[in-house]
Structure formats: C-alpha cells, structure tokens
Amino acid sequence: MSPLLVTQPFEIANLQNLSVGRALPSLQTGYEGPTMVKGAGWSLPSGAYTARQIVEGCAPLLETVLYHLGPSPSDQPSARDMLLDNLASNLALGTRESSLDIPTNSASRKEFAAQAVKIGKTLVTYARETKDVAYDSTYAIRSPCEGHLLKPPVAQLMFGPRSLGHLMQIYNEYLHQMVLLRDALLPFENYDQVIIPITGGKSKQQLGMRFTEPQRASFIAELMTKLTTQKSVFKVGQQLLAPNMPSDIAYGFQYKYGIVLPAAVVGGQSLRLLRYIPSVIDETTPEVTFEYEFADYYSAPRVQVPQLLQRVEKDQTPVTAFDAKQHGLEDCSFAIATNSNSSSTSRILQLLLSHRNGQCSAVDVGQISRGWRYSYKVSSTKGHTPSAQSSAAVSVHSASEFLASSEEEQIGMAFGTLFSTEATTTCRLDIRKIVLQPTDDNTEDTKVDPKGPVLEKKKKKAQNTSTDDVLQREFPSSTSINSQSSKKKPKLTDDIPPRTTRAKIKSAARSKKPEDEDE
Hints:
This protein has helices at about 5, 50-70, 80-90, 105-130, 150-160, 165-185, 215-225, 230-240, 325, 365-375, 400-405, and strands at about 10, 20-25, 35, 40, 45-50, 195-200, 250-255, 260, 275, 280, 290, 300-305, 310, 330-335, 345, 350-355, 360-365, 375, 395-400, 410-415, 415-420, 435-440, 440-450, 455-460, 470-475, 500-505. By secondary structure, it is an alpha+beta fold. The chain folds into two domains: about 1-25 and about 250-519, no CATH class; about 30-215, no CATH class. The model is unreliable at about 1-5, about 385-390, about 415-425 and about 440-515 (pLDDT under 50).
C-alpha cells in the first residue's frame, strides 16, 4: 500500500470531518486454512477475526453434524434449514429457545435487547451464507450442556434414528459458540466491523470464543438484574479486545487493531454503546487507555458561567446575532493532551476546536461522553401549552467565546438557566440534568420538572438563527442547576443533521443518579 494512503487521517464525515488519528491500512484478518483438520480437531487458530470470519470458522462443526444426518426425506425440510432455524430461535429474544432474556423495564435494557436481536439476525445471516467448508467426519467433542434448547422437530432429528450419539455434543458446541459471539459483541454499535484478537490454545477455556465466558457471566448477570453502568459496558468490550489493559477509570482505549470510544462522540447514535474505529492516535504506544480528565467528577473545580453577551426579555423572540462565519467551526480533531503521562499506558484524549474567529479550545473527550450519557432525549407532546418557566428571559452566548474564556481544568456552572447551542460546538458545563431537543425547522418550549425528566413541550414557529451559538434562558427559580455541555461537540449523533440542527440543553437539580453512571 502507498505510504500516502497509510498516513491519511481517519475522518468522520458527518462530524464536520472530525479527524480521529491516522487511518490504519487494510488489515489481514481471518484464517486462510481450515479450522477443522482431521486428527487435530476443531479450533479457531490464533489471529484477528471479524464476526463473519468467526461464524465461518465455526461452520465445520455444523457441517460435520449435517454430514452424518444425511439428506432429509422429500416431504421434510433439510437438516441444514432445521438446525439454522433453531440457531435463529436461540439468538432471538422472546422465544421458547432464547438463550438470553433481557428485561425491558429501563432505557438501557431496551437498547441492549434491541442490540442482541440485531446481532443475532446478522450472525444467522452469516451462518446461512457459509457453505462448503472443510470438516472431519470423525470429529467428536465432549461439550457440556449449556442450556440451549431445541425446537421439538430438531430434538426429534438430533435424538432420532438419523442421528448418532455424539452429534448432539457437536451441535451444542456450535450453538454455544454463536451465543458467546453474540454476547461478546453487545457493547459495540458497529459490531460487524470490530476486529477480535483470538489466542488459540489446547484447553477447553481457549476453544473458540470460550475465553469470553468469565466476563460474559458477570455482564449478563448485571444486564438482567441490575442497572447496566457505562463502566461495565466498557469493561466487557475491553476484555474482549485488549484483556491485559487496566480499565479502572477508562472510557476508551487503543489496541493493535484500532480505537474503541463511546459511540456518541464519534458519530454513533447510541448513548451507551461503544464504537470501533480503524485508526491509531498514539503512535508511540500500541495499547493505551483513555481516562477521564476528572476521575471524580463531583470534586472537579467549578467556575461561574461568563457574563451574558446578549439578553432578550421574556415573551420576546430569541434571535441569535452572532455571525456564523466568524464564530463557526473551522477545524476539529482528537489529540493526546500534552499533560498526559507518556511513561504510563493511560492518556487524556481531547477534542481540539478551531473557530473561524481564530479562537481555539480543547475539551476532554471523556467529559463529552459523560455529557451525552447524562442527557435526556425528549420528543414533542401535542396539546400542551408552555409553562411559565418557558417564558423567562433569554440570554445568548457564543459557544466559541464561552470555551475560550473558561479554563480547561474547570467546569462551568449555571444557576436556574437553560442553554441552547448548535450541535457543531462543544461547551464545558457542569452535569446535573441535560435535556436534548433536536430541532430542524422549529424551536420549542419545554416544561421541566426539577425532580424528573421533561414533562411537556410545545413547538413554535422557526426563527432565523445562525450556527455555533448558545442561548441561555433563566428560569424563575432559585434552585441551583448545573448543566454540562462537554457533550456538545461537532455533530455527535447521526440523528442530529449537520449545520441545521440545534440542541437545547435544559438542566435542573438531579434527584437521583442516572442509570448510566460511570461507576
């Protein structure tokens, strides 16, 4: 490959070409030879694999079973279809044969349930597309029962006259490998692109995906019985791809085959999942973790928000007067902070912003991810009228001026205020409660309960506004409200259209910790 191509930056187009390190060249993944060799058994040899390649590597287990079952009678479905349909039922949710039961009584569990279904369907598609692989008709394995249920017709097939005593053991191993793969991919939004390093071995614990069993057990238990924390999501992802790295206060990492960061900060749609990026940021150390600038967020130093630059009296139309050409974003990139300890394997990752007015700022990427994770996304409710709170005076800030005036090691505080900012900018504000209201052609008034999420909001006609501005609205309340916009960086989510969208950020005193707390 040309050196020019190898050194190209990795850019995220829907985030104003956010530069995330250097793009890695095309990586050699998978194993070119057979994964089942006569006399040597089956295994996934040491190497790097995508999800599709792991499914293909496990296919000889299924092919061995199908060889012995032979062709089906003309009035019955083929054994291949029956066994793969059973796999689909195992990987689905809500079926008798489901291998995973995720409660859907919280937002995070609902998201992971949808993620499990999506991954399961993808793996079944890969399995149906994989045929004509090498297998060993004499292969046998003792695979302990893992509780993967069979459909009644499949049970009759596997324990009937067409089958042999050891075939159920082989098929059980095949099912278990697929279940382990599905569960290992749960933390990743772009699960089909993740490159998984596998170290083969002779022990049962190193057979295929079985090395993921210890971490899977704890994560699934938490997913089914407790609130799933960001820390546990990160840990299970990191244990899959870079098990030797520490993960105490980390939110992302770089390993041999790329970078893993919270999806929201690199163009993803999820506030909880991670995203794999085929690039490298730290050229000096192959494996590093990205840690929060403020390990203990609540003890971080605070500073008052600067003096308001504009003010619109209550009931008047808020009009942004800042010039987008002057205050707009010129360039943005991720970079290692200069104060990072190069002698260790931990780094502080920053988002560097250059504005058209010549001002520059840097924000901790970990703090940005916290901002998005703490936020509430709300939808409009018809038939309601704005509350008195939404009629208060409005103050307008330039996001670039705010970032330039605040110090990197401080968090901005706002008392009884509402900030509205372009999705293309980043602010450094204190987290308590953040309500995101994406809008394209209209602005909205929102009623906020100080003890909970948004109750109602009403749309108003669109007003002429420019980009990269922050509207600050004062509530007629003396309650101390902390709002953070470490989150607002260049177009963080796919559902926020570029250049046209504003995200309103409301903050109110938080009465309880969010379910996606770091810890």
